[in-house]
Specification:
This protein is mainly beta and 483 residues long. It folds into 4 domains: 25-138, Jelly Rolls; 147-242, Immunoglobulin-like (Sandwich); 248-330, Sandwich (Immunoglobulin-like), CATH 2.60.40; 352-480, Immunoglobulin-like. The protein has 3 helices and 37 strands. The chain has helices at residues 2-28, 285-289, 330-349, and strands spanning 31-39, 41-42, 48-56, 62-68, 73-78, 81-84, 89-98, 106-109, 112-116, 122-125, 130-133, 147-152, 156-157, 163-171, 177-185, 190-197, 202-209, 218-228, 231-242, 248-257, 260-269, 275-281, 291-294, 298-301, 307-315, 320-328, 353-365, 368-380, 386-396, 399-401, 414-418, 421-431, 436-449, 452-455, 459-463, 469-473, 477-480. The strands form 10 sheets. A 5-stranded mixed sheet has the order 13-19-18-15-16, with no helix packed on it. It has a 5-stranded antiparallel sheet with strand order 31-32-29-35-36, with no helix packed on it. A 4-stranded antiparallel sheet has the order 1-3-7-5, with no helix packed on it. Strand 18 and strand 19 (231-242) form a beta hairpin. The N and C termini lie far apart (131 Å).
Length: 483
């Protein structure tokens, strides 16, 4: 228990200490400053001057002092220290004088310490306190403007990423160049800005550019041009390659309605160079009969031995390939429906009576046929009885019906003559469901039938439930005499 309490106390104290440190750091850095150079090109024995403005952003009044850790330079500030009220600002005139042994002809960056006496926190500024120590005999000389630009850029850049251009500017002469205009033209990116170069100063600047990811690939030229007082003073160039890449993006939509399916594939080249868009489809032979492609595919055999339908097209950057595949079974379904409807109508409307007529020759001789046996097969194929059934058959005039009754045969109720021949009639009061009857009779030809004879179809009449008469015809018979 003691260890746990001690641990909890230690954590609490540590938390409080961290909070105090953070609070102190926030309070300590509660000021800002700005620097304005007055004189920064000097000779030995002279002082460079700068105007330093300090702004107290803390919620308390504070003293500020100015100093340097560079032992080669003598610093003086006017005033050396002063009180700045909270929310106010004050200015210091800072002078920097080189010691006798400091070499001339060099630009120096002096680290100046700006310190809060209340908190002990300080900023050390170096870049803004730049001094060029010139040779005495060259002070009044006018130097030519000579700046050497050096370009650093990757030989191959990816347009999907930011492009880094590093530019090094070196002032070759002891001349201050304020208002130096820099123009960077990389064909696919551009920037123009103004900078300041101290005498003999060398400055490196990195600039990040964003280019279009769809910019055309290939070799480009980067040119850096320097202007001073509206005159071109220097130019440097280099070449770089823009990486070419493919980015085929595919989208898919599907619509189905009444046995018709439409699949849409859209392939979009989101890269910056031409590329081949390809889509393979595997469908069976039956489905292919009802499928249409747009554009038309090529039939190919894959490495797996299967057959594929392939659509290929070369796409430029930002170009799209739309593929439409329509599988339409409506015609097939319509045919099947018509068959089903036809079968239903057939069974619903077909005659319930089957009437088949057969004939076979009797008494066949070399001279011909003189007697024929005729059979009429009659069947009720419905589930309902048929009433008042009449069967009528017509015999050609060349023959006549034998009136002699035979065992098992049914005699006609009436035999009459007409212009077409002899008409025989049979009647049934009722024909039960699925009942079968066979009517047979014989014909005798008046002459020997050498070539054969044609027997017309017989017909059966019956009454429906509604009292209407319906007729069913049999087949015709062509009886041919062969030697």
């Amino acid at each position: 228990m003691i260890n746990k309490k001690a641990g909890s106390r230690f954590i609490s104290l540590l938390t409080i200490a961290v909070l105090l440190v953070l609070l102190t750091a926030i309070q300590a850095s509660a000021f800002s400053y700005s620097v304005e150079p007055i004189t920064y090109v000097i000779i030995k024995g002279e002082s460079a001057k700068y105007n330093l403005t300090v702004i107290n952003t803390a919620d308390y009044d504070d003293y500020f002092t100015i100093s340097t850790r560079d032992v080669n330079w003598i610093i003086s500030a006017d005033p050396p220290s002063r009180l700045i009220l909270t929310g106010e600002k004050a200015s210091f005139v800072v002078e920097l004088k080189p010691k006798p042994l400091v070499p001339a002809g060099v630009t120096y960056f002096i680290p100046i310490k700006i310190k809060s006496e209340t908190t002990g926190f300080y900023f050390e500024e170096k870049q803004q306190f730049a001094v060029y120590l010139a040779f005495p005999h060259l002070v009044n000389k006018t130097y030519e403007v000579t700046v050497t630009p050096t370009i650093y850029i990757d030989k191959t850049i990816d347009p999907r990423e930011k492009v880094s251009v590093r530019l090094n500017l070196k002032n070759r002469n002891a001349r201050d160049l304020d208002g130096l205009r820099v123009v960077i033209n990389g064909e696919v990116f551009y920037k123009e800005y103004t900078t300041h170069l101290l005498p003999l100063e060398e400055k490196l600047n990195e600039i990040l550019f964003e280019v279009s990811p769809l910019v055309e690939s290939g070799t480009k030229t980067l040119i850096v041009t320097l202007f001073f007082e509206d005159k071109k003073i220097a130019e440097s160039s280099t070449q770089y390659d823009i990486l070419g890449y493919l980015d085929m993006q595919e989208t898919f939509t599907k619509k189905s309605f009444l046995f018709r399916t439409e699949n849409r594939f859209s392939i979009y080249n989101n890269g910056n160079k031409k590329g081949l868009a390809e889509k393979k489809f595997r469908i069976n032979s039956f489905e292919r009969l009802f499928t249409k492609f747009s554009p038309s595919p090529v039939k190919e055999e894959g490495v797996d031995g299967r057959t594929y339908y392939v659509i290929r097209q070369e796409l430029s950057s930002e170009e799209r390939l739309d593929i439409i595949i329509v599988t339409n079974y409506r015609l097939l379904v319509l045919i099947i429906l018509l068959i089903i409807i036809g079968m239903v109508l057939y069974y619903a409307l077909r005659s319930p009576i089957i009437l088949i007529k057969n004939a076979e020759p009797l008494g066949k001789t070399k001279e011909g046929v003189s007697e024929i046996k005729v059979s009429l097969y009659l069947k009720n194929r419905s589930r309902k009885p048929l009433t008042n059934l009449r069967v009528v058959d017509t015999v050609p005039s060349i023959a006549e019906i034998e009136k002699k009754a035979r065992l098992g045969s049914m005699e006609p109720v009436n035999i009459s003559k007409s212009r077409r021949g002899t008409i025989a009639r049979w009647e049934f009061d009722v024909l039960e469901p699925y009942e079968e009857r066979i009517i047979t009779y014989r014909l005798k030809s008046k002459l020997k039938l050498i070539g054969g004879i044609r027997l017309s179809s017989a017909k059966a009449r019956y009454d429906t439930k509604k009292g209407k008469e319906r007729i069913t015809f049999s087949n015709t018979v062509n009886l041919v005499q062969r030697e």
